[in-house]
Design goal:
Layout (H helix, E strand, L loop, with lengths): L1 H8 L2 H19 L3 E6 L5 E8 L3 E3 L4 E3 L4 E2 L4 E3 L4 E3 L4 E2 L4 E2 L2 E2 L3 H5 L15 E2 L2 E3 L4 E2 L4 E2 L4 E2 L4 E2 L4 E2 L7 E4 L4 E5 H5 L6 H12 L1
Parallel strand pairs: 2-5, 3-6, 4-7, 5-8, 6-9, 7-12, 8-13, 9-14, 12-15, 13-16, 14-17, 16-18
Antiparallel strand pairs: 1-2, 10-11, 18-19
Length: 205
Amino acid sequence: MMRRFAGLLIPNRLRHLVRLRIDSMIRRLKAPRMVWGYRDASGNWRAKTRISDTIYFNHPENCFIGDNVYIGHFSILDGTGKLTIEEGVQLAGWNGIYTHSSHIAIRLYGKHYQEISEEVKKGYRVKPVNISRYAFIGAGAIILPGASIGRGALVAAGSIVKNDVEDFQIVSGNPATLTGTTKSIDAEYLKDPTIKSWYEEWQKT
């Protein structure tokens, strides 16, 4: 009844404008945001690193993140077995980087699973993951425990990486397999001497 009465007093145009303003405010408040700067597990401040405010860190005390890193929205970063993300790495978003797996332990312990500490749990696999400098991890890709990603490598969107990826390799699929090299993609751009010098610069240090 009140809504009908308000409808008679407030013109449709005005109600529409108010609704648009309210919706816009809600979207701004709820929208994911990129946060500049991050202090990683080493205690170092990474001023150029950008990390989404939607990221979930598991054992952040074991997550070591370099500068100039980009980590997109809705990703999970697991530091259980130590996660290292070096300078310049980009994670597009919706990524899962895992350094442990409980798929055996949960069956062994059943409902007693949470009673046993991670340090002594049987079938609880823990292996570090290292993502090297200026590698790119496409949207929805998953990196499993023990896998290392080489410098300048590219993991295609939606891939599941179980094994090491060498420097400048391109991998895709499930399980991810070699499909090319980023060097072949980069060659055309390296005709520009400025770009070439910058490209070679990060590979020397």
